[in-house]
Amino acid sequence: MKIITVSNIKGGSAKTTTSIFLTEALSRKGRTLVIDLDMQADLTDYFLPDSSPEDIDKGNIFKLLTGESDFASSIHKGKFADIIPGTIDLAYLTTRVFQNFSILKKLRTILNENKDYDFVVIDTPGSARSELTVSLVACDIILVPVTPSKWAIRAVNLLLDEIKNSREITNKEHKVCFVPSMFGKSIKHTDLLNRIRSLEDFKTLSPIPKSESIKTKSEKRAKLQLKSVPWEAFDQLANEVIAL
Ligand SMILES: Nc1ncnc2c1ncn2[C@@H]1O[C@H](COP(=O)(O)OP(=O)(O)OP(=O)(O)O)[C@@H](O)[C@H]1O
Ligand SMILES: [Mg+2]
Fold it and tell me: pTM score, two decimals?
């Protein structure tokens, strides 16, 4: 089982979009579970568009972490993959962690006990919250979508610090890979991409192009068109992740 966290402390850096379409590609190659650790629950809205808050209250990542539901009852049948949904209740997670620090390791322990899936993809919030720590402690691979922004390098450095802190809890070396997203061909974008690629110790995977259809399909909660340029880009990303 490969556990993959999609993370960047910069908001709006294509984390949820990457999580959705990477899951779509991975689910063609093996059993895939997707987990929403962002209280904004955008990923949950994509996979469970018709579920009410009451449906999601029956089992979700907050209840799983706080011991109010078990693994099996936290899983919902989503569009093309199983999902443990997110909930706005994650706003209380940091308070719960202060009462019980073992919550930080809980997802890792649960996933290690349940090997029913080939791939687990975890979407995270665009901020350094406890949810991010839970996901970093749980995963083997960290995918960092990077978009052209003046804060890109600083956000990456902040995340690398968070990753270092999570290693104090697990003693585990993660594989950290950048996924350039929405880069154009301008000199500014090329310079930034070269700076990302030159960061030592980290691989840069194949880029995801800027594409209106990626945006519309995620808004309409639809799949990418088979064999289209974005479909091929996420298929390639999935193959590269599997090969890590
Ligand atoms: N490759 C792409 N081409 C065009 N638009 C994209 C692409 N990837 C993401 N977007 C758009 O960029 C916006 C931000 O993407 P997304 O919601 O995935 O970011 P995020 O990092 O999850 O944000 P947050 O930090 O708020 O959770 C969305 O409107 C999304 O549709
Ligand atoms: Mg998001």
Answer: 0.97
